[in-house]
Write a structure and sequence with these properties.
- The chain contains 7 helices and 3 strands, in the order βββααααααα.
- It is α+β, with helices and mostly antiparallel strands.
- It has one domain: Phox-like domain (PX Domain, 2-Layer Sandwich).
- A 3-stranded antiparallel β-sheet has the order 1-2-3, with helices on both faces.
- The longest helix has 19 residues.
- The two termini are about 30 Å apart.
- InterPro entries: PX_dom, PX_dom_sf, SNX10/11.
- Keywords: Cytoplasm, Endosome, Lipid-binding, Membrane, Protein transport, Transport.
- It is a peripheral membrane protein.
- It is found in: Cytoplasm; Endomembrane system; Endosome.
C-alpha cells in the first residue's frame, strides 16, 4: 500500500491586513484501504495542523505524534524562506502521521485530509452531531470535484 501526501502551494490570505495567514494545499494520493477517497486535495492553515496534532496526541495514547515545525513569534513581512521551511515541516509531519497505523485510525485525520470541513465541523461530524457521517463527508467532498479542480488549476 502506498500513500503519497504533499504539502504545496502556500498562499497568503488577507495579505496586508492584521489577520493575514498562509494556507497550504494538501494533496493526497493512495491505494490504502484506510482511506475512503483515493485522491484528495484540500487547503489548511498552520493552526488547523496544531489542532490536528493535539487531537492525535489525545487519542493516540502512548504512541508518539510527530512534531510540527515551530510557530513564528513575530511574523515579519511573509518571508518566503520561513513559509517554505514551514511547508517542508508540515509535509514531514503528515508523511510520518500517515505511516503510523494508530494515528491513521483517527477519523479526524481523515476529515482533515479529505474534506474541506472546518475544525468545529470536523468535531461535530466525529461526534455524530453533523449532518453527515465521516464517510459521507469525505465522499461528498470527493464527488464535488473540489479537490480535482484545485489540483488541475495548478498544473503547468
Amino acid at each position: 500500500e502506498v500513500t503519497t501526501v504533499r504539502v504545496q502551494d502556500p498562499r497568503v490570505q488577507n495579505e496586508g491586513s492584521w489577520n493575514s495567514y498562509v494556507d497550504y494545499k494538501i494533496f493526497l494520493h493512495t491505494n490504502s484501504k484506510a482511506f475512503t477517497a483515493k485522491t484528495s486535495c484540500v487547503r489548511r492553515r498552520y493552526r488547523e495542523f496544531v489542532w490536528l496534532k493535539r487531537q492525535l496526541q489525545r487519542n493516540a495514547g502512548l504512541v508518539p505524534v510527530p512534531e510540527l515545525p515551530g510557530k513564528s513569534t513575530f511574523f515579519v513581512g511573509s518571508t518566503d524562506e520561513f513559509i517554505e521551511k514551514r511547508r517542508q515541516g508540515l509535509q514531514q509531519f503528515l508523511e510520518k502521521v500517515v505511516q503510523n497505523v494508530v494515528l491513521l485510525s483517527d477519523s479526524r485525520l481523515h476529515l482533515f485530509l479529505q474534506s474541506q470541513l472546518s475544525v468545529p465541523e470536523i468535531e461535530a461530524c466525529v461526534q455524530g452531531q453533523g449532518p453527515q457521517t465521516v464517510t459521507e463527508a469525505i465522499l461528498h467532498y470527493a464527488m464535488s470535484n473540489c479537490g480535482w479542480a484545485q489540483e488541475e488549476e495548478s498544473r503547468p
